[in-house]
Amino acid sequence: MAPFYCPYCGEEHLEPREERGSWYCPDCVRSFTLKFLGVGVPATASKETPR
Q1: Which residues share a beta bridge with 22?
Q2: Cβ(14)–Cβ(31) under 8 Å?
Q3: What are the average pLDDT values for consecutive 10-residue runs of the chain, which has 51 residues?
Q4: In a domain? residue 2
Q5: Which of 4, 34, 36, 48 is the most buried (most CB within 10 A)?
Q6: CA 4-19-16 angle, 5° bins
Q7: Residue 42 domain-assigned?
Q8: Judging by beta carbons within 10 Å of its beta carbon (0-12, 13-18, 19+), is residue 48 exposed, middle or buried?
Q9: What superkingdom does the record give (predicted)?
Q10: Which residues have CB under 8 Å from 20's CB, separation 6+?
Q11: The domain containing residue 16 runs over which residues?
């Protein structure tokens, strides 16, 4: 996944780094990593009540 903006300064110009999920913002000179944890289902929604 690609970020839409830098989480530190909000700029949209980002460059991918060599590591998977790592991005560099040349405007604020910071690097950050994105991690997709998945889409979770709440425990109550996954259990259906019997009728």
Answers
A1: 33
A2: no
A3: 90 92 95 86 64 61
A4: yes
A5: 34
A6: 35
A7: no
A8: exposed
A9: Bacteria
A10: none
A11: 1-31
- Looking up tokens 């790592």 gives 22
* DSSP letters for 5-48: S-TTT--S--EE-SSTTEEEETTTTEEEE---------HHHHSP
Give the DSSP per-residue string, 2-15: --SS-TTT--S--E
Q: Are 33 and 19 in contact (CB under 8 A)?
A: yes
- The answer as to whether 47 is a domain residue is no
Neighbours of 6 (CB within 10 A): 19
Number of domains in the chain: 1
Q: Round to whole Å and give the CA distance between 22 and 1.
A: 10
Count of other CB atoms within 10 angstroms of residue 23: 18
